[in-house]
Specification:
Elements: E1 2-6, H1 9-26, E2 31-34, H2 41-52, E3 62-65, E4 67-69, H3 80-87, E5 99-100, H4 110-123, E6 129-132, E7 154-157, H5 160-170, E8 178-181, H6 184-188, E9 193-197, H7 203-211, E10 229-234, H8 244-252, H9 256-261, H10 266-274
Parallel strand pairs: 1-10, 2-3, 2-6, 3-5, 6-9, 9-10
Antiparallel strand pairs: 4-8, 7-8
Helix pairs in contact: 1-2
The structure holds fructose -6-phosphate.
């Protein structure tokens, strides 16, 4: 697992957006797996900035979001479809016909919705890059602790802790008890996983995911099985990593071809073009 330690949440978002921009530079019709949540906000702000600065196009991209509450209308303040529209889709050149959510109007619809979602991901050629956040209990998507590590898109019943966390956006009503989420095996099928974690609240889960045992009690630890998983953490979320110095060394020693693939050459490339052309000898 590659661990990139950056100063703060804004830097984590900028770094994640740079990786996505580099993917879209090389593969404009890339298939992106997207996540909602507070952690991703700075990343989406940066993607929007890049699109408006004509540095990035999303027009040919296809997106699949990780999860959605069951029985929640698309325009409900708690729905992930609304959050994604507000933070990204309405602000960029994404083609709405290429945007996908595992949205079910009722639990009865869930099996059909899940089967169709998995089929749609496959028909799109699989996910090139899956963006993820992590819960304080180590969940990814809505795969709560004890989720099967070989699960595919399916119904999950939320823990009381997750329900309480969602209470504010559903008030005065009750948050739904059910969601549809990509499974852990669905997430691991992506060609690359990119997880962002920021803030001290996430430090314990981050250490368990990266350095702890592989266990369904920490669903994010399944990323240890992925051949290309990148974790971007800010200093606060990195605080409990025993091998932080090693992760910084690995990053310092990255060869040029690895840097280019992640857009790390961007700044170096931008500087010379901003300078006046060299004068003729
Ligand atoms: C959201 C999702 C969740 C969040 C996680 C972190 O689509 O699948 O796993 O990524 O709960 O949420 P924040 O970023 O709000 O701390």
């Amino acid at each position: 697992m590659e661990v990139l330690i950056v100063p703060d949440a804004a830097a984590a978002g900028a770094r994640g957006a740079r990786i996505i921009a580099a993917l879209l530079r090389d593969t404009p019709a890339a298939v992106l797996g997207l996540a909602t949540g507070e952690t991703q906000r700075p990343l989406y702000v940066e993607l929007v900035r890049r699109v408006h600065a004509h540095e990035l196009r999303l027009a040919a991209a296809t997106t699949f979001n990780l999860d959605e509450f069951v029985g929640v209308a698309a325009d409900h303040p708690g729905s992930f479809r609304r959050a994604m529209r507000q933070q990204l889709f309405e602000l960029v050149d994404v083609d709405p016909t290429r945007v996908h959510f595992p949205a079910a109007a009722s639990v009865d619809e869930v099996p059909e919705v899940c089967a169709r979602y998995e089929a749609a991901i496959e028909a799109a050629g699989g996910i090139d890059l899956q963006l993820l956040g992590i819960g304080e209990d180590g969940h990814i998507g809505f795969n709560e602790p004890t989720s099967s590590l070989s699960s595919r898109t399916r119904l999950k019943t939320l823990t009381q802790r997750t329900i309480d966390g969602a209470r504010a956006v559903f008030s005065p009503g009750e948050p739904p008890r059910h969601v549809v989420t990509m499974g852990i095996a669905t997430i691991l099928s992506a060609r690359r996983c990119l997880l962002l974690a920021t803030g001290a609240r996430k430090a314990r889960a981050v250490a368990a995911m990266v350095e702890g045992p592989l266990t369904a009690m920490v669903p994010a630890s399944a990323l240890q099985l992925h051949a290309r998983a990148t974790v971007i953490v800010d200093e606060a979320a990195a605080a409990q990593l025993a091998l932080a110095a090693y992760y910084r060394d690995v990053e310092r020693c990255k060869p040029a071809w690895q840097r280019r693939a992640d857009g790390d050459d961007e700044q170096a490339a931008a500087v010379p073009s901003a300078l006046p052309a060299p004068s003729e000898p």
